[in-house]
Design brief:
Rossmann fold; four-stranded antiparallel beta sheet; 17 strands; alpha/beta; 20% strand; globular; binds S-adenosylmethionine
Length: 463
Amino acid sequence: MSENADDLEQTLVLAAAAADSLQYEDEVEENETESIQETPGEISYTSSYTIPTRHSPEAYDTFESEQRSVKKRKATAVENLNHTVSYQNNSHISKNLKAEDESQTSEYSHTQVVATHYNLLEEKGLQERFKSQIIHMRNFHNWIKSMLINEYLTKIKDSKKQHNAPIRVHDMCCGKGGDLPKWKKGNITHLICSDIAEVSLEHCKERYTHMKRRCQRERGGGNMFSLEFIPGDSTKIRLREKYSDPSMKLDLVSCQFAFHYSFESLPQAEGMMRNASECLQPGGYFIGTMPDANEIVARARKSDTDSFGNSILQVTSEFDLDNPPLFGAKYNFQLDGVVNCPEFLVHFPTFVKLAKKYGLKLVKKEKFFKFFERMKDEGRQLMTTMRALEMYPPGENVTLLGNADDDYLHAKKFVERLEKNSGSTKIGTLSKSEWDASSLYLTFAFVKVKNTWNADGTPCYDI
Ligand SMILES: C[S@@+](CC[C@H](N)C(=O)[O-])C[C@H]1O[C@@H](n2cnc3c(N)ncnc32)[C@H](O)[C@@H]1O
């Protein structure tokens, strides 16, 4: 093991940005109990900010029926093209196209913009990636995904009566297949990979072929799962119809860093949720990661302008901060050249309600910080291997990657405290800028519930 890894092993701490993020944490924790309870008249994004009557928990049902009856607007192909082009030029969609109006009245959606964005993202070489200011944050997110996937694959395996029973998984919005090694390690049997960005899917295919060849070459390389690819918009097409076997029953659906794109409109969110749920067998899980709307709204409200961020992150809200719509609450997200495209707030209580409609019961929702706290001991070795944290103080001839003035103050203070007790020491950390970005995310897990049938033939779930 390298010196770096040994040091991380000795003292591992995510000391970053604790003050700021914990402050938000408190607000959100309070809110979670408040917002999920069925308070007539209002639902809160954070405990101190409430949203007027139309966003009551019942508003989702009203919204749903309103949406169904709204006439389709004639958004022309030329309009779509203009949108795509303006995003490619990094300019914002004009504000007079109000997000909510658009989502309620138009067939136009941003999915093509998102697809174009991901298709144009370059595959950066390892060299290039190591130079990135956010390499450790990306690794940290990868670690979170690994731990989450492993947690639910373990539950699935434990629940199977038969040893070596097949495990079938759908990686929804799989991107370039960054999670393929996790599926291999999890020893699954079959994987479905779907994504709207066809170029990304091509990368994913290449990666799989490469892994499979290596697996065949190496003795003891383990079993390689079978794989099928589905290109397409999972908010709009019924993915099951594209499966090699549409009657296939899945054990796990994973949607990492992507469900929020569907919250552009209710029909899209429903389409995506149906795709996530309908092939899961009872007891199967739907897991994922996505931005935490509470964090975004809270930070945006604290800022004097419509933007907040730091040297690596810029979030610009394009929705009414005092009255965010349930769907179509658009913001622009820029992260050190990794993502720069429109995203949508996911109002979590609405997400839970939508999931319930499709037979999915919430098992756990955790902010990244909480997830880390729960998993850090179990995942210590993996964190070291994945270089999920940066060593502080850095080794000889190593430059810290963060470049904001206060990026390592938290680490410095932490090390000083440790040194008082145990002499010279090193810790693993993220820069404050990275942690400001990372603490915007949460993990979620739902379990598929067994259904009974109503007299009219619709499924009925006891959730
Ligand atoms: C941030 S990337 C995450 C990729 C992968 N899940 C990961 O964790 O590395 C988001 C992915 O969602 C895909 N995506 C966004 N909207 C989609 C939609 N409506 N249908 C299918 N894929 C979509 C994008 O093309 C992109 O590959």
